[in-house]
Amino acid sequence: MICEESRLLIGAEPVSTAPALEEHLYACPACSRFREEMRTLDVNIQRAMQQPPDLVTVRAPHRSAAWRGWALAASVLLAMLAALGLWALRPAATLAHEVVAHVQDEPKSWLATQHVDAAGIDRALRGAGVALNITSDRITYAQSCWFRGHYVPHLVVQTERGPATVLILRHEHVRARHSFREAGMTGVIVPAGEGSLAVLTRDDGNIDDIAESMRRNVRWLPGGT
Length: 225
What we know:
By secondary structure, the protein is an alpha+beta fold. 44% of the residues lie in helices and 24% in strands. The protein is built from seven helices and eight strands. β3 and β4 (162-169) form a beta hairpin. α1 (3-12) packs parallel to α3 and α2 packs across α3.
């Protein structure tokens, strides 16, 4: 189960304890926090439904039912808007978790030491509509991977501090830098031209320098799919 699936399930049934969901939440602090927030929100909705605000005045007792109905509707609407707000605040966190999960599925990528030739790099970049202004001797892993409905270049670039994994995400757009730590990896997702870049390392080095270097060296080409 991925973050998107778990959060849809949580949104529909905050009290769900499905085994697949529990397994995902055990390994995903972000989704675990999301469930706690949704459960709190659900409790507040139940309270609002059981004890709607009393807006009735002494001069208009015949309006009691109507006012209570409006108050209940307003409470539920506000709760729904709050839930949508919680969801909207987490797209970058969800993307980061899926990037980590994808990298974990290819553990041997970190161990590659042989440089990828120009043809191999071209195969990884082909179709994504990107080009790189870096020499092939810095790249030890290059694959075109299926990620969120598109083929994206998945690279391992050798830096002064060791290997860094880079995913070039033409179809993912983030508004601002988003950093994260998960599964022993430090990562950052940054806006870059027509899309974004995800960069991960396995140490606490200056990952921003790596991300900025990659951002400068990526060229977005017309016709990417």
